[in-house]
Amino acid sequence: MARSIFFYTDSRVLGGAENAMFMLLENLDRGEWQPTLLFDDAPGVEPLEERAAALAIPVLRVGPLPLGLAGARRLPALVGLLRRQQPDVFHAHMSSPVACKWGLAAAVLARVPAVLGTVHVGEYRPPDRSADWQLRTLAHGVGRYLTVSRAIATELVEVLGWPAEKVEVVHNGVDVRGLEVAVPPTLRQELSEGEERPLVLTPARLNAQKGHPVLLEAIAEVPDALFLFAGEGPEREPLEALAEQLGVADRVRFLGRREDVPELLAACDVFALPSLYEGTSLAVLEAMAAGIPIVSSAIGGTDELVEDGRSGILVPPGDPTALAAALRRVLEDADLRKSLAAAARERVRAGLTLEQMTSRVSDVYRELLGEVPAATAAAPESQRNPALRRRDWRFALPAAELVESWRLPSPGRSRRARRRAEAAGFEDVRVYWPGPLPQRLPQFWLPVESDAAVEYLLAARGADSLGEKALHGLWRLARRAGLLAPLYVIGRRPSTGDEELDLPPAAPLLLLTGGHRSINKVVGLAFEGTEAKPSAAVKFARVPEAEPGLEREARVLGRLAEERPDLAGVPRFRSKGRRAGRLAVVADVVEGRSLLELLRPDNFEEMAMRVTALLVELARTEVPGVESRQRLVEEPLADFEDKFGAVLAEPVLASLRSSLVGLGRLPAVPEHRDCSPWNLVVTPAGDPVLLDWESAEPDGLPALDLLYFLVNCALVLDGALESGRTRESYARLLDPASEYGQVAQRAVNEYASALRIAPEDFRRLRLLCWIIHSRSDYRHLQLETGDRPRSEDLRKGMFLGLVEEELR
After folding, report:
1. Which of 287, 494, 569, 638 has the smallest set of CB atoms within 10 Å of its CB?
2. pTM tops 0.70
3. C-alpha triplet 336, 337, 341: angle, nearest 5°
4. pLDDT digit string (tens) for 78-87?
């Protein structure tokens, strides 16, 4: 059944933002979404109503909601309307960050399941602290803000202070098919009034934002072309007077409002738009799709669509001289016009079509309604990660279903929701709170009805100061009073099984969902009875590409448990299975504190020697001999050359190859490949335990884990990861006369003696270590961009720097 979606605008003109809204309305799948348009019951909105009627979209007029107290007084009426109508989605289209303020507030207060706004234009500064506070408060209640440009997104986060995780860039799209038109036979002659001159088109509303006076000044320096202004607006008479004053009126045609813009674009030679500010200009998008060369202002939004010199020519806003020079350049070079037009059209088809924009916005609706869209796997990490994290509740139960959720406190609603769920046939109904802050991506999902899980979490988060103790006390009061929010009620159908996980069937899971990427795993801690101590830990792969690592961890830990049942220092493997369609691995819980929290300069030596002893003991595990140099040396080197060869000179690559030639035959060991302070837990007895074996190489090389551990300890102690001075820190660690260098030298000597590794092989292994780990730098950059990283970004990689430092 189609879900109800209410679109809202407080605008009374049919401009760019409103046209973008109607394009989205027209392109939505009516089988999935049933739209209704809300707008002010005031004079001047008739064009909006007519456009809605042409698209067969139902309309509801609501009382005008101006920004001041008059709008606030009418807020209850809109809240009541939304509660009666019960839409699934409320989507406001905002001509500025402050637009639709009361409409969005009404949707939040009415508890519409999905509330979002699209900000089409920026350049807003709150007039006072009260206005700033109101917008920030509202931003925490709204589910998502879409912006049509990165410039607006930056403004919302860095200037207005709205939550970054709620702001997402979705550029406007354009209907490519609607712009593939032929030029009517007589149109060009009509526009030029019979003159044989190039035609420059500016289709834009005649208001101050669009910068028409700048273009009129430039026209005086472009004598051979005719300029066509297609559009109406309050500035028409002043612009006509200015054209006369500048002596260019004979070469400027004011066409008025036109409904044949695609035909105009096809008939003209150049598109010019001298706007002073924009969101994402639909006029620029249409020109790009139509294949007409573009000259425009280099302003936020436009400079994200047009690559200067490749798909258009950009000039500083408000600069008539630069604008005139750019117009002359394009008009005088037919080859340039052709290449600019082709590149612009290619850019649109690659990611700026109306279908692509509508698909992403529809995905956002589904995300806010608690669904994972089918397109999530192909989305950029900035979109994919938040979408998945908001659904991590799915790992709480076998075949978990979201029964009900709400975002604002509602005493007693949990009990009522539980009864409704059980009456509907759900079993194992659980109530979860995503915390710690409702407006941010969850770091955990807490089963609020489990006293054991609650006490464990509160103890783990600490309450050392009076302020923290007071916050814990207030949170406990809110829990008892039923005032926690948001809350999610989750259950499963009777037909579902336990999906082969070795977990107590009735034990609720506290889900820990830290990390910053979708590839990070979800960790579930199972609680039985009333003891605030978990009985088992389970790791879930959030995305398919996380499964190979989890499968590797299960294989390595399973083999160690079979071959070395007495081995301390690694988690005890129990079983593996699947949940929510993803791989899961169950192991014993390891109690202790992260070495990252404990590590200090005065205990570095003690910790280093304890970890060295653990790695030596781990190396005594009997595994097959090293299969070949090809798998462990040649393949990583070839992969490094493929990924980083573009930023390294050939002599450097040749030096790499020659440095590794003499690497001798070495004993095979279970290699962790992420042995670092953040993956080591120190038990109450002081023994280190190495967690997270997802990157492991079951039959790997010795020494690499020790080297990686020592270097990362030094980087942490030096603060080099924050300052970026990793090469300097690494150089100091290699110096046996330095404080940390002495510790490293002692650990290396003990390890080398136990495994009989020659000093020259240790040097080669250092170099190979950073070659192997450079893959993680590349992978992180690839996740951010969704494509092959740029050379300038590759050069900033930490491990590439360590390779270069090692060669130096």
Report:
1. 494
2. no
3. 115
4. 999 999 999 9
